[in-house]
Amino acid sequence: MDGSHMHLNALEALERVLELLQEKDAELQELYRQHNELIQTQRSTDAASGQAAAIVPLIGESLVVDAEAATRITISHRLMRSGLKVRTAADGIEAVEALARAKYDVLIFDYMTPRVQPLDFLTVMTKRRPDTAVIVMINGQPTPMLRDELLQAGAKLVLAKPFDFARLTGLVRQFVQRAATAEAA
Asked: Which pick of 32, 82, 168, 176 has the fewest CB atoms within 10 Å?
């Protein structure tokens, strides 16, 4: 296989990755649109009946990075149900691309994310995006040494899997509120 053929295969692979990212973004945008429609419908219904709104508008920007689709979907679903905007990435490359395209208030990052060295990623990411709060998830209990390294690299919090989703949601909301307060100041 000559160099030009390998270059063509790499370009085709990159184009496919970009297509998949666009499809994923389109799916999430459709979910946001549906959520906003629900808000408008709920507001109209509530206004007609004199009740308070039951659906909250989406706030903040969070990026969930985890190779396990079930974990990624569960976290993003729980955060969205609590009124938070969420994007997802399945590996380090997707995370870097997402961070290059948008600003996030919170990054929820699995320590075992493929295609990236976690400590290097955290160090570079927190230097480039110091306003983004990073929560690192680890399977099982991290050693004190690893926890310290992650915190020194820029993580705001290290959570052991499995974790309480209500706690995670509360923490993410706190970081989003802090970001909103800092922007307003």
From this structure: 32
What was the pLDDT predicted at 99? 93
Model pLDDT, residue 143: 94
Q: Which residues pair with 107 in a beta bridge?
A: 63, 134
Kindly state the tokens that stand for 14.
Answer: 């990159």
- Side-chain-side CA neighbours of residue 72 (13 Å): 17
Residue 11 shares a structural domain with residue 73: no
CATH number at residue 117: 3.40.50.2300
For the chain, which residues score pLDDT lower than 50? 53
In 10 A of CB 58, how many CB atoms?
A: 18
Radius of gyration, alpha carbons of the chain: 19
Residues paired with residue 109 on neighbouring β-strands, in sequence order? 65, 136
* Continuous H helices in the chain: 3-49, 69-81, 92-101, 118-128, 144-153, 165-184
Residue 59's pLDDT is: 82
